[in-house]
Specification:
Rossmann fold; six-stranded parallel sheet; 37% helix; 256 residues; alpha/beta
Length: 256
Protein backbone atom coordinates (compact mmCIF):
# COMPACT_ATOMS: atom_id res chain seq x y z
CA UNK A 1 0.00 0.00 0.00
CA UNK A 2 1.30 3.45 -0.86
CA UNK A 3 0.41 6.38 1.36
CA UNK A 4 2.80 8.90 -0.16
CA UNK A 5 -0.02 11.25 -1.15
CA UNK A 6 -1.24 11.68 2.43
CA UNK A 7 2.00 11.51 4.42
CA UNK A 8 2.43 14.48 6.70
CA UNK A 9 -0.99 16.10 6.33
CA UNK A 10 -1.69 15.33 10.00
CA UNK A 11 1.83 16.19 11.17
CA UNK A 12 4.68 14.03 12.41
CA UNK A 13 4.26 10.96 14.63
CA UNK A 14 7.30 9.47 16.37
CA UNK A 15 7.20 5.94 17.79
CA UNK A 16 10.10 5.08 20.11
CA UNK A 17 10.85 1.43 20.78
CA UNK A 18 9.63 0.30 17.37
CA UNK A 19 9.06 -3.39 16.68
CA UNK A 20 6.55 -5.81 15.18
CA UNK A 21 3.72 -5.46 17.71
CA UNK A 22 1.98 -2.28 18.90
CA UNK A 23 4.54 -0.08 17.19
CA UNK A 24 4.01 -1.65 13.77
CA UNK A 25 0.24 -1.40 14.14
CA UNK A 26 0.55 2.26 15.15
CA UNK A 27 2.91 2.97 12.27
CA UNK A 28 0.52 1.52 9.71
CA UNK A 29 -2.55 3.30 11.08
CA UNK A 30 -0.81 6.62 11.60
CA UNK A 31 0.64 6.60 8.08
CA UNK A 32 -2.71 5.63 6.57
CA UNK A 33 -4.30 8.47 8.56
CA UNK A 34 -2.00 11.11 7.11
CA UNK A 35 0.97 11.28 9.48
CA UNK A 36 4.61 11.28 8.49
CA UNK A 37 5.82 8.45 10.73
CA UNK A 38 9.27 8.19 12.32
CA UNK A 39 10.27 4.91 13.97
CA UNK A 40 13.11 4.73 16.50
CA UNK A 41 14.77 1.50 17.60
CA UNK A 42 18.11 0.30 18.93
CA UNK A 43 18.29 -1.93 15.86
CA UNK A 44 16.96 0.08 12.91
CA UNK A 45 17.64 -2.87 10.57
CA UNK A 46 14.79 -5.02 11.91
CA UNK A 47 12.96 -6.66 8.99
CA UNK A 48 9.62 -5.37 10.28
CA UNK A 49 10.87 -1.79 10.14
CA UNK A 50 12.24 -2.21 6.63
CA UNK A 51 8.88 -3.62 5.56
CA UNK A 52 7.08 -0.59 6.98
CA UNK A 53 9.41 1.73 5.10
CA UNK A 54 8.51 -0.05 1.87
CA UNK A 55 4.76 -0.35 2.48
CA UNK A 56 3.94 2.87 4.35
CA UNK A 57 6.78 5.32 3.74
CA UNK A 58 7.95 5.40 7.36
CA UNK A 59 11.39 6.69 8.29
CA UNK A 60 13.58 4.68 10.69
CA UNK A 61 16.16 6.08 13.10
CA UNK A 62 18.64 4.26 15.32
CA UNK A 63 18.32 5.25 18.98
CA UNK A 64 19.06 3.87 22.43
CA UNK A 65 16.22 5.59 24.27
CA UNK A 66 17.98 5.16 27.61
CA UNK A 67 20.77 7.46 26.38
CA UNK A 68 20.19 11.19 26.76
CA UNK A 69 22.56 11.92 23.87
CA UNK A 70 20.81 9.43 21.58
CA UNK A 71 17.37 10.83 22.36
CA UNK A 72 18.53 14.39 21.76
CA UNK A 73 20.02 13.34 18.42
CA UNK A 74 16.82 11.50 17.51
CA UNK A 75 14.61 14.55 18.04
CA UNK A 76 17.04 16.79 16.15
CA UNK A 77 17.12 14.37 13.20
CA UNK A 78 13.36 13.84 13.11
CA UNK A 79 12.71 17.57 13.17
CA UNK A 80 15.32 18.23 10.49
CA UNK A 81 14.01 15.51 8.17
CA UNK A 82 10.26 15.50 8.86
CA UNK A 83 9.33 18.32 11.23
CA UNK A 84 8.44 18.70 14.90
CA UNK A 85 6.29 15.83 16.17
CA UNK A 86 2.70 16.31 17.25
CA UNK A 87 2.34 12.72 18.46
CA UNK A 88 5.00 10.71 20.31
CA UNK A 89 4.55 7.14 21.56
CA UNK A 90 6.95 5.59 24.07
CA UNK A 91 6.58 1.86 23.52
CA UNK A 92 9.43 0.31 25.53
CA UNK A 93 8.87 -2.57 27.96
CA UNK A 94 12.42 -2.33 29.27
CA UNK A 95 12.69 -5.68 31.02
CA UNK A 96 15.79 -7.76 30.57
CA UNK A 97 15.75 -11.57 30.76
CA UNK A 98 17.43 -11.68 34.18
CA UNK A 99 14.40 -10.19 35.96
CA UNK A 100 11.71 -12.54 34.60
CA UNK A 101 10.09 -14.58 37.39
CA UNK A 102 12.91 -13.83 39.84
CA UNK A 103 12.20 -13.74 43.59
CA UNK A 104 13.01 -10.40 45.16
CA UNK A 105 15.66 -11.98 47.39
CA UNK A 106 17.62 -13.42 44.45
CA UNK A 107 17.13 -11.01 41.51
CA UNK A 108 20.31 -9.24 40.44
CA UNK A 109 20.47 -5.59 41.50
CA UNK A 110 22.20 -4.80 38.23
CA UNK A 111 19.30 -6.35 36.29
CA UNK A 112 16.81 -4.33 38.30
CA UNK A 113 18.72 -1.13 37.60
CA UNK A 114 18.91 -1.96 33.90
CA UNK A 115 15.14 -2.51 33.77
CA UNK A 116 14.44 0.82 35.48
CA UNK A 117 16.90 2.56 33.20
CA UNK A 118 15.52 1.02 29.99
CA UNK A 119 11.86 1.58 30.89
CA UNK A 120 11.22 4.52 33.23
CA UNK A 121 14.32 6.61 32.57
CA UNK A 122 13.87 6.30 28.81
CA UNK A 123 10.22 7.37 29.19
CA UNK A 124 11.45 10.49 30.99
CA UNK A 125 14.08 11.27 28.36
CA UNK A 126 11.64 10.87 25.47
CA UNK A 127 8.93 12.79 27.32
CA UNK A 128 11.25 15.67 28.12
CA UNK A 129 12.31 16.11 24.50
CA UNK A 130 8.74 15.62 23.27
CA UNK A 131 7.57 18.38 25.61
CA UNK A 132 10.32 20.73 24.50
CA UNK A 133 9.39 20.18 20.86
CA UNK A 134 5.62 20.32 21.28
CA UNK A 135 5.65 23.55 23.29
CA UNK A 136 6.80 25.20 20.05
CA UNK A 137 3.79 23.86 18.11
CA UNK A 138 0.73 25.92 17.33
CA UNK A 139 -2.51 24.48 18.75
CA UNK A 140 -4.13 21.92 16.45
CA UNK A 141 -7.81 21.29 15.62
CA UNK A 142 -8.45 19.75 19.06
CA UNK A 143 -6.87 22.71 20.85
CA UNK A 144 -3.70 20.86 21.85
CA UNK A 145 -0.08 21.26 20.81
CA UNK A 146 0.74 17.55 20.88
CA UNK A 147 0.26 14.18 22.55
CA UNK A 148 2.70 11.96 24.43
CA UNK A 149 1.50 8.39 25.05
CA UNK A 150 3.34 5.98 27.35
CA UNK A 151 2.56 2.31 26.77
CA UNK A 152 2.44 0.57 30.15
CA UNK A 153 1.49 -2.84 31.53
CA UNK A 154 -0.48 -4.64 34.25
CA UNK A 155 2.37 -4.02 36.67
CA UNK A 156 1.51 -0.31 36.58
CA UNK A 157 -1.64 -1.25 38.51
CA UNK A 158 -0.52 -4.21 40.63
CA UNK A 159 2.81 -5.66 41.66
CA UNK A 160 2.97 -9.39 40.97
CA UNK A 161 5.08 -11.95 42.88
CA UNK A 162 8.54 -12.37 41.36
CA UNK A 163 8.07 -9.16 39.42
CA UNK A 164 9.53 -6.45 41.65
CA UNK A 165 11.77 -4.89 39.01
CA UNK A 166 9.02 -4.61 36.42
CA UNK A 167 6.50 -3.29 38.96
CA UNK A 168 8.97 -0.59 39.96
CA UNK A 169 9.52 0.42 36.34
CA UNK A 170 5.85 0.40 35.35
CA UNK A 171 4.68 2.33 38.40
CA UNK A 172 7.47 4.83 37.83
CA UNK A 173 6.17 5.37 34.30
CA UNK A 174 2.65 5.86 35.68
CA UNK A 175 3.89 8.46 38.15
CA UNK A 176 5.87 10.20 35.43
CA UNK A 177 2.81 10.40 33.20
CA UNK A 178 0.60 11.74 36.00
CA UNK A 179 3.10 14.42 36.93
CA UNK A 180 3.67 15.42 33.30
CA UNK A 181 -0.08 15.58 32.69
CA UNK A 182 -0.63 17.98 35.58
CA UNK A 183 2.30 20.15 34.53
CA UNK A 184 1.97 20.14 30.75
CA UNK A 185 -1.78 19.79 30.25
CA UNK A 186 -2.40 23.47 31.03
CA UNK A 187 0.32 24.28 28.48
CA UNK A 188 -1.50 22.39 25.74
CA UNK A 189 0.26 19.02 25.76
CA UNK A 190 -1.82 15.88 26.22
CA UNK A 191 -0.05 13.19 28.30
CA UNK A 192 -1.55 9.69 28.53
CA UNK A 193 -0.53 6.58 30.45
CA UNK A 194 -1.93 3.39 28.86
CA UNK A 195 -1.61 0.24 31.01
CA UNK A 196 -2.39 -2.78 28.85
CA UNK A 197 -3.67 -5.25 31.44
CA UNK A 198 -3.44 -8.46 29.44
CA UNK A 199 -1.40 -10.45 26.97
CA UNK A 200 -1.06 -8.94 23.49
CA UNK A 201 -1.81 -11.25 20.59
CA UNK A 202 0.63 -10.25 17.87
CA UNK A 203 -0.07 -11.09 14.24
CA UNK A 204 1.87 -14.15 13.10
CA UNK A 205 3.07 -15.07 9.61
CA UNK A 206 0.23 -17.59 9.23
CA UNK A 207 -2.41 -14.92 9.96
CA UNK A 208 -3.19 -15.98 13.53
CA UNK A 209 -2.57 -13.85 16.60
CA UNK A 210 -0.52 -15.19 19.46
CA UNK A 211 1.52 -14.25 22.51
CA UNK A 212 4.95 -15.79 23.08
CA UNK A 213 3.95 -17.06 26.52
CA UNK A 214 0.12 -17.21 26.52
CA UNK A 215 -0.24 -19.04 23.20
CA UNK A 216 -2.71 -18.41 20.38
CA UNK A 217 -5.64 -16.04 20.79
CA UNK A 218 -9.11 -17.57 21.24
CA UNK A 219 -12.35 -15.56 21.01
CA UNK A 220 -10.62 -12.18 21.43
CA UNK A 221 -9.06 -13.18 24.76
CA UNK A 222 -5.93 -11.07 24.10
CA UNK A 223 -5.44 -7.47 23.09
CA UNK A 224 -5.19 -6.88 19.34
CA UNK A 225 -2.35 -4.45 18.50
CA UNK A 226 -4.37 -2.99 15.64
CA UNK A 227 -7.15 -2.08 18.10
CA UNK A 228 -4.61 -0.63 20.52
CA UNK A 229 -3.37 1.59 17.69
CA UNK A 230 -6.93 2.79 17.10
CA UNK A 231 -7.19 3.83 20.75
CA UNK A 232 -3.88 5.70 20.52
CA UNK A 233 -5.10 7.64 17.49
CA UNK A 234 -8.39 8.41 19.26
CA UNK A 235 -6.45 9.70 22.28
CA UNK A 236 -4.45 12.04 20.08
CA UNK A 237 -7.62 13.35 18.49
CA UNK A 238 -9.46 14.00 21.77
CA UNK A 239 -10.56 17.59 22.25
CA UNK A 240 -8.78 19.36 25.07
CA UNK A 241 -12.10 19.85 26.87
CA UNK A 242 -12.27 16.08 27.45
CA UNK A 243 -8.69 14.82 27.63
CA UNK A 244 -8.08 11.41 29.14
CA UNK A 245 -4.85 11.03 31.11
CA UNK A 246 -5.01 7.29 31.77
CA UNK A 247 -6.72 4.51 29.81
CA UNK A 248 -6.56 0.88 30.93
CA UNK A 249 -7.06 -1.63 28.11
CA UNK A 250 -8.08 -5.26 28.67
CA UNK A 251 -10.13 -7.81 26.70
CA UNK A 252 -13.69 -8.58 27.68
CA UNK A 253 -12.65 -11.96 29.14
CA UNK A 254 -9.73 -10.68 31.24
CA UNK A 255 -9.93 -11.26 35.01
CA UNK A 256 -9.01 -8.14 36.95
Amino acid sequence: MSTASTLGTEGVALIVGAGPGISASCARLFAESGFAVALAARNPSKPELKALEASHGTRTFGCNAASADDVATLFRDVEAQLGRPVLVVHNIDGRIAEVFQKPVNTVSPDAVWATLHNAAYSAFLVGQLAAQAMLENAPGPNGGKGTYIITNASAALKGFPKGAAFAMACQAKAGLAESMARELGPQGIHIVNVPIDCAIGRLQDNGTRAHWLAGETVDDNMADPDRIAEVYLQLHRQHRSTWTNEVVLRPWTEKW
